[in-house]
Amino acid sequence: MSNKRPILSVENLTKVFGGVVAVDNVSFTVDEGEIFAVIGPNGAGKSTLFNMITGVLPSSSGNIYFQEKRLNRKKPYQIAQMGITRTFQNLEVFDNMSVIENVMTGAHITMKTNILTAGLRLPSVKKEEIKTMERAIEALEAVGISDLAYEMADRLPYGSQRLLEIARAAISNPKLILLDEPMAGLNSEESRQLVEVILKMREKGMTFLFVEHDMETVMSISDSIVVIDNGVKIGEGTPEEIYQNPQVVAAYLGDEEEEGVEAYA
Amino acid sequence: MNSKSLKLIYNNSILGPIIFFVLLFCVPLVSSSNYLFSILTMVGFYALVCIGLTTLTGYAGQISLGHAAFYGIGAYSSAVLTGTYGLNPWVAIIIGAIISAVVALIVGIPTFKLKGYYLALATLGFGIIVYTLFKELSTITGGSNGFFGIPPISLFGFEFITDTSYFYLIWIFVFFAILFTRNIIHSRIGRGLRSIEGSEIAADAVGVNLMNYKLQIFVLSAIFASVSGSLLAHYVSFINPDLFVANTSIFFLIMVIMGGKGNIWGSIVGAAMYVLLDEILKHYVPMLLPNVGGQFEIVFFGILLVLTLIYMPDGLVPRFEKLISKFKKKTPTNGALQSTISANATGGDNK
Ligand SMILES: Nc1ncnc2c1ncn2[C@@H]1O[C@H](COP(=O)(O)OP(=O)(O)OP(=O)(O)O)[C@@H](O)[C@H]1O
Ligand SMILES: [Mg+2]
């Protein structure tokens, strides 16, 4: 990775819930085209961090910059329009729609139809619908569930719903995608498939920030890793550096060393 | 991939609506009962309100217990502008719709910050305020005595006076409202609205401006209710505030839920069910229980609403569609056809 340009900078970010400091003065920078992992034990504050970046939760202090623009106080939909989309740890598919409609809803910000042109169904609306439908099929093909396109989303098995959320997040061609535990609930075949999907999308220029408990995956696909424990950043670096960080090993990795290092190529 | 493929998701054929309305418009050929047409005309007025309300409640998942207010604003705008100021009824309808839209926008901005019960209460309160205004601004509205002498509507020299003429007039409006609304539902906008009901947090995360969408659809539904109220005023030629009490708002919601809140055709079915049951009640209850007062309607429909929510939460039309698709699935089909059926069930209205 030669010319590194930062895409997301988190500076001294803190979140306090009542008396609990869920995220404590965390800073890191994600470069364009990177696959960047955030790891840490349960309750470390990873999801809270994601919720602050995507505007779901206001931060207590600190700053977030996306391509030099400050994100604090922006609403989630505005952040999506700037080019950051996400998936959710606890699935949030639109269970009142079919799979393909879910993905087409992900393309919302790339479309122009408004309530009047829609109501009158102008030719431009129909054209846009067809184009979006084609793109949705492609997005579903990319994650390998295009055969389920016309099923109701809530009838999908858990793993497929995760893949659906990724297709929905990716169809608008965002610059940065946040994945909150994308492998949770996937079987090993689905996980392997998802890793391929992420690597392929990265080649197309997308940047990934993801939270994951599956160490093997984290070590094999990440360019950089940040380790959080109890809201505090306790380590940062490449997968190799993380393994050599005694504080991290003590706090988190424990006895998982061998398999992780092998997987890293 | 061509335009045919869109049919896998949405059935936009206008054949169904056309057949329905042609059949409906043939009714005068076989019957000339004024009673029948007064009933069918009332169904039309209610259906027009419910079509708007169902996009708000059924698709966007936002409750309103204040739509009688817009129905009333339309009616009083038309009454005052044509009756007092002699304006052309069509101009009055448009002005009424604009007033309703502006009121909806002003009321909607603070109100849609609320959710669930609070939203229901706020819209109910709004309805009561507007009702009180109809009653108290008596120099303009005639107060509790009502507003008399609203002139009939006319078009190219034809005066709408008979029940049959209003029957045609209102149902033409319903026809276009159905098409317009269905087009909205089957588009980016419809998905935006439904995503709010599906998951607000995910809708927000894909870039749907929730507030903006709620407001737009609230305004649209207010316009539908307003136009319906305007036409009603010309039809009955006399209106009073009691037509627009909170109960009316509640009845609108009951119609929407009975018919099927996520289905545009449910609006018509719900309105028809309501008018029919109401007529039966008015006829038989005084005969069977001579001591019962005028409040039995709200009790009856209240119970019906509760029963619907328990035993048929999706309402009549979706229930009916499920039966049909079950029946279809029994015949051997290939995979593609199979998914067409389930996709149609999804799209909601495949008439
Ligand atoms: N809305 C909230 N109100 C109060 N406390 C919260 C809230 N959300 C999270 N917390 C607390 O903040 C801390 C961090 O939670 P968070 O969900 O960010 O952890 P996490 O790292 O994502 O954990 P997991 O791996 O289990 O998903 C926890 O102690 C949690 O109880
Ligand atoms: Mg989490």
**Helix percentage of chain A:** 40-55%
What letter string, H or E per element, gives the SSE order of chain B?
HHHHHHEEHHHHHHHHH
- Summing up helix and strand content along with how strands pair, one would put the structural category of chain A as alpha/beta
What shape does the CA trace of chain A take?
A: globular
Number of domains of chain A: 2
CATH class of the largest domain in chain A reads: Alpha Beta
Structural class based on helices, strands and sheet pairing of chain B: mainly alpha
Count of separate DSSP helical elements of chain B:
15
Largest sheet of chain B: 2 strands, antiparallel
Low-confidence stretches of chain A: 255-265
Q: Average the pLDDT over all residues of chain B and give the rounded result.
A: 88
* Cofactors and ligands: adenosine-5'-triphosphate, magnesium ion
CATH architecture of the largest domain in chain A: 3-Layer(aba) Sandwich
Largest sheet of chain A: 6 strands, mixed
Major sheet strand order of chain A: 6-7-8-3-9-10
Q: Uncertain spans of chain B, ≥5 residues at pLDDT below 50?
A: 331-351
Distance between the termini of chain B: 24 Å
Oligomer: heterodimer
What does this entry look like structurally?
The complex is a heterodimer of chains A (265) and B (351). Chain A has 265 residues and is α/β, with parallel strands linked by helices. Helix content of chain A is 40%, strand content 23%. Chain A has 11 helices and 10 strands. Chain A has a 6-stranded mixed sheet, sandwiched between helices. The two termini of chain A are 15 Å apart. The relative contact order of chain A is 0.17. Residues 255-265 of chain A have low confidence and may be disordered. Chain B is mainly α and 351 residues long. Chain B has 15 helices and 2 strands. Chain B has helices spanning 15-30, 34-59, 67-84, 89-111, 116-136, 138-141, 163-185, 188-198, 200-205, 210-236, 246-259, 264-288, 296-311, 316-330, 335-347; strands at 154-155, 158-159. Chain B has a two-stranded antiparallel sheet with strand order 1-2. Chain B is globular, with a radius of gyration of 21 Å. Chains A and B meet through α2, α3, α4, α5 and α6 of A and α7, α8, α9, α10 and α15 of B. Residues 46-47, 89, 180 of chain A line the site of magnesium ion.
